[in-house]
Amino acid sequence: MKTTGKTTYQLPIGPIHPALKEPVMFEFEVDGERIVNVNIRLGHVHRGVEWTATQRNPIQVLYLAERICGICSYCHPMAFSLAVERAAGIEVPERADYLRVIHGELERICSHILWAGVAAHEIGFDSVLFLTWQMREKGVDLTEYLTGNRITKGITMIGGVRRDITPDMHPKIQEALQYYKENFKKLQQVFLDDKTFQMRCKECGVLTKEDALAFCAVGPTARASGVKKDVRLDQGYFAYSDFDFDYITPDIHTGEVHGDVYDRIVVRLLEIQQSIALIEQCLDQIPAGPIVSEPNIQKLLTKLKNTSGEGIGRMEAPRGEKVRAPTYNNILPWIPMLTNQQIADIPIVASSTDPCMSCTNRVTIVKNQGTSFLDKEELHRMSIQKTRRLCP
Asked: Which residue of 11, 250, 299, 350 lies most exposed, with the fewest beta carbons within 10 A?
């Protein structure tokens, strides 16, 4: 292929995600190591969740929605619950709204720390991966203590939540929050102050504010580009309107916005601090009262069966707005992020949006009518090599 007088090559990567074993198809046009054009194809694995949901009653759909994503297993059913509650005119008890905030912010902490470990792995720092995932265990253990489960929590109920958080459980929560406060400085030193991370992530995978708006980016991906978009603040669902907090953008820490991989790290780490503060406010202000509007499941189902109307549930999950998965919005911004980057930057740029899909693991490169194979391990090796070149 000829482009501006130079020979470029097609580099198909997929259908896998270059940083995770998930199916998405990239078609890169490359000039040497430089990416000059990107095309993205989705839809290799469609599980039919929407159709399956139409064959179940609303309570059963909660457990189906919970399995859309293991990392965001709380946000999906909650977005569904919000939609049902608005369609049916169900008033959620005030205490339940506070409990929903606690579970949502705990999931955000666990998700952001998990992402930080994956990002470190993609540029060759597996010791940091183990450090962050060790920290995440504290949050997962707390999740199990509060809900009985580590991943699929089973806590959501239309009209409230299934389990209360009693005063005798508060010390366990406060212990975990204190643990994260004490270890936050370590995360900051590793991810924000380390020169290797700065050299590898600054000016890499830039998404300007204009492109973030044009491509409808959401969540930390959008906020890292200076777009103040957060459903918790924009719509004030649950008890969020009762709390004092603001949009997290990278200039809070750095004084400026570049919209690069480094800024996306800044936003997620600062949001961990924000989530800690929100949970503390919940514990201090939570009112007494019931935790669900209708404890009798049969009565609730009868009410829902006789309800007609429409409702929209919007929720700010760790990656961005649900239940239409935020990855749908954050994939198109990969095009400007990856253009003019090096092939070795593909894993860290793509993973910096914290994408979520499904599984497979093969890449085919076609060059000069010959075929060779480049798998996930080789892409990861190239990413590590670039890190070592920058920091010999």
From this structure: 299
